[in-house]
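Re: the 398-residue chain
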Amino acid sequence: MLASKKILLAVTGSISAYKAAYLVRLLKKEKAEVKVIMSRAAHAFITPLTLATLSENPVSSDFVADQDKGTWNNHVDLALWADIMLVAPASANTLSKMASGQSDSLLLACYLSAKCPVAFAPAMDRDMILHEATQDNIKRLAKRGDLHFQSEFGELASGLEGGGRLAEPEHLLEQLKEFFASKSKLDTKKILISAGPTREAIDPVRYIGNRSSGKMGYALVNEALSRGAHVSLVTGPTQLEKPQAQELVEVESAEEMYEACIQRAPDFDVIIMSAAVADFKPSIFENQKIKKEKGIAAIELESTKDILKRIGEMKKSEQVLIGFALESENGLENAKKKLQSKNLDAIVLNTLEDEKAGFGVDTNLIRIIAKDDAIDQYELKPKTEVAKDILNYVEDLL
C-alpha cells in the first residue's frame, strides 16, 4: 500500500521521539520513501544520525545547511516532494505553533508550505492533552483538514497513566495505509497488468526478443498496489525484482502471454497491457541447437496472436482497457489507429524519437490519447512518476 509513497516525517521534542526510529523502519519495510525533518528540541531525545541511517536520507533541522558554503535546506522543495507530511510526535508546543501559523523553524515552514495532506500525532502528558488550549489547537487543525492520528491511553513518562501517549508505530503505519487506500478509486479494484518482453524460440538456445526491461510495467504494478488495488501481473522475462502482486504469472513466449491474459481478462475491472509482445515468431522450432557449421540461410517468421485485439473484442462495457504504443515514426497516427482498431479506452504513446524514453531507461515521456482524440501530454519523468500519471488517468476514466 505504501510502496513508492513519499513520507515527510516531522519529529518534535517529546520523549516519545524514540518511536520515530521504529516508524521509519516500518515505512522502509513497506518500500515507502522517507525523509525526516526534526525540531531542535527533538535532538535531545533522538539523534539525526539514527534517523538518517534508517531513512537512507539526510535529516534536516535548520534553514541553513552549511553556513560556510552558503547552502540551505529548501522547505518548499521538501514540502512539494511529499505525498503526506506526518508530524509524529507532535508536541503541545508544535501543535500550538501549527494552529497559529508560526514559522520559526524549518519544520513549521514545511508545514505552511505543504500542498500534500498533513497528519499529526499528538504526544504529551495527560493533563497537557486534556487542557482546553491543546484541545482547541487540535480542533483548529482538524477543521483545516489536517488528519488527527489520535494519541493512545497508557503509561506516560511522568509516571501517570492516561491519554497523550503517542500512538504505537504499527498503529501509525496502519492509519497511513488507510488514508492512502481511502483516497484511491482503485482501492479493491482488480487490475490485470502485462509487462516485459517475450522471447520467441529459434532453438533450445536462441530466441528472437526485444529490448524491453519491464520497468514501466513493474512501476505500474507497484503504484496500483500502493492505491489498494488487487493486481495480477503477467510478465515476460526480466532482470528486475518481482513486485509483490497478489498474483504473479511468469511467461516466456507471446503464445504463453496470450493464454494467461485471455484466460484472466474477463474477471478484471482494469486491464493495462504494457508488455512489449513480439509481433513475429519463427515458423519452425529446431529441437536441437543449430550448429554453426551447419549454418542457417534464413529464419521464416509468422505473426503471433494479437493479445490486445482479442481482449478488445472480449471487453465488457464497464471494463477499462489501456494499451501501449512504442513507435519509431508517425507515432501519433499509428497510435490512433491502434486505439480504434483494438477497442481501447486510451492508449499510452511513447516514441524512440524522444531521448531518455522507451526501453531500458528509468525515465519515460508519454502522451495519453483518448477515444475522442483528446491528448494529454506529459513531461519527461521517472517511470515511477509516469505510472502515477497513467493511474490517475485510469481513475478519471472510472
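DSSP finds 13 helices and 23 strands in the chain.
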